[in-house]
């Protein structure tokens, strides 16, 4: 029953010899130590020979700590991937396959073919045959397209085993076991069908399988530990016309034979098993040498094919006429001549490209995050193509990728995914420096395409610098119909755009299940706008529990603020940097306190950055007076110019109210980040010591003088 946390904390100091970041938030020092220990040894940051306890030839640091690693970060030249796939670390990789949940890539650099092969083997083991459910990539200003697309493709569950991507030109042992089991199952099914056919005496009818039987067999071939079927419904219609899953091939009258384009090696099967060429086979496709790629075993063959693959609902499949090239796709405006409904234009391209349907489909991750990685139009089309059939995907985060108009391409892939019966996609977060369209227009487009979303976050810093003073959306667009959605959380960060309730109205009407709304950096075009918004929220969102305003000037909207504080449906209200008390009177503060005292449903009140100061903080303690019916549990007064003497006075007043209430107080959490508590360390320590006997206090060691200097320097 004794805790080992202090021992692991001391081990951190002895072995790591560094101060851990965010040490206050660490809940398990054992896990933190072992994960960091594994990472530092893997990347050569920690020299085990320098510590006598670790310098033992019988002790393997990686093997010992690997079962406790749930997240791992690979950096720079992917040296960690090379080390983990080395033969002597086979058991380490096996342990990671069972324990690792989050795989991160940070500050990657271009690498050679041998390192990419190591990465492929690592991803295949950890994702396809492992437990990794989240792949995150960070800070890649000039991404290597081949490497980026490779990680995306394998995260989506695709792998063309049996080529240069695998050692010895053969699938891994786990793949061989699965294929052997599936072959035995197929053979057994074939024998059973043969017996049934003889008993029924209808051998001719059994030559043609019913649609249900075909689907069942297709699922048996591609299921098991692997992801759902590889083909989309639209692709299945034309799969018989597209051997080995080419994007498109020439008509049967073409002088080029299929043998010239590719060579397939199927798994040995019973003759009775009749399969479509694009499904259920292990194949090794060699493209014709036409000057595009001379090495059929080149990794580029697989990677660059992904962007050209057609999708269900994303690209209309058409067949080329005799002598024409296969279709390639470039971004264009929807509705323009020569484009399809998704806004893609056809142009000439190389022939005989291996499509995704020629690759095996394995287990895929459920969360994909891309932070500060520029995505080109070609990369966006690749990602869109992968998204269209990525049925395991639940969360997608695209942050500062320079998408601009390419967001439409991403939405096309997600729209195709949403039509899949097994789609589990629920969370989309998009943030960028510039917005190419008004935020509300983008929100409406997303919800129209993805009504099954539960969480949507859209955030932009600035309007598009090329558009200058961009005209606002025509008010008539606010009447556009949005299907009823499952949206529960909506977060919008406006690039200093006016908040027009008329544009938000159709979104709120379609989101009856909305529970949390956050509006950030919006401007109010007229004094009545906030009142209109509150009326719409009350009418359209009966289930709203959390409402947040950040960086929205509410100094002149005291009446609306009081109305929100007395709303019986809201449980959490945030006014962050809203200048609430900038020009307020003592009467307004008194009304705020009395309103909160009467509201028994409000659980959390967050007021960071509103210039409370000492005297207003002390007054807020009256929320918990003896005559209060408030159920407030959490109070956030961060960044409010609070000094140690004011905090001590607040603490004493709070203690008095506790005595009056017989020791019963619902208040449990107080947040004090970035206040001026360093101006009198002794008084601050006394106030914090007494406060921690009342509630949980979260604060930081903030240097107010340095922060003020930084503020002055950027003015």
Automatic annotation (TrEMBL):
<dbReference type="InterPro" id="IPR026137">
    <property type="entry name" value="Leu_rpt_41"/>
</dbReference>
<keyword id="KW-0597">Phosphoprotein</keyword>
<feature type="compositionally biased region" description="Low complexity">
    <location>
        <begin position="248"/>
        <end position="263"/>
    </location>
</feature>
<feature type="region of interest" description="Disordered">
    <location>
        <begin position="179"/>
        <end position="284"/>
    </location>
</feature>
<keyword id="KW-0433">Leucine-rich repeat</keyword>
<dbReference type="InterPro" id="IPR032675">
    <property type="entry name" value="LRR_dom_sf"/>
</dbReference>
<feature type="compositionally biased region" description="Basic and acidic residues">
    <location>
        <begin position="206"/>
        <end position="216"/>
    </location>
</feature>
<feature type="compositionally biased region" description="Polar residues">
    <location>
        <begin position="326"/>
        <end position="336"/>
    </location>
</feature>
<dbReference type="GO" id="GO:0005634">
    <property type="term" value="C:nucleus"/>
</dbReference>
<feature type="compositionally biased region" description="Basic residues">
    <location>
        <begin position="270"/>
        <end position="284"/>
    </location>
</feature>
<keyword id="KW-0833">Ubl conjugation pathway</keyword>
<protein>
    <recommendedName>
        <fullName>Leucine-rich repeat-containing protein 41</fullName>
    </recommendedName>
</protein>
<dbReference type="GO" id="GO:0005737">
    <property type="term" value="C:cytoplasm"/>
</dbReference>
<keyword id="KW-0677">Repeat</keyword>
<feature type="region of interest" description="Disordered">
    <location>
        <begin position="314"/>
        <end position="344"/>
    </location>
</feature>
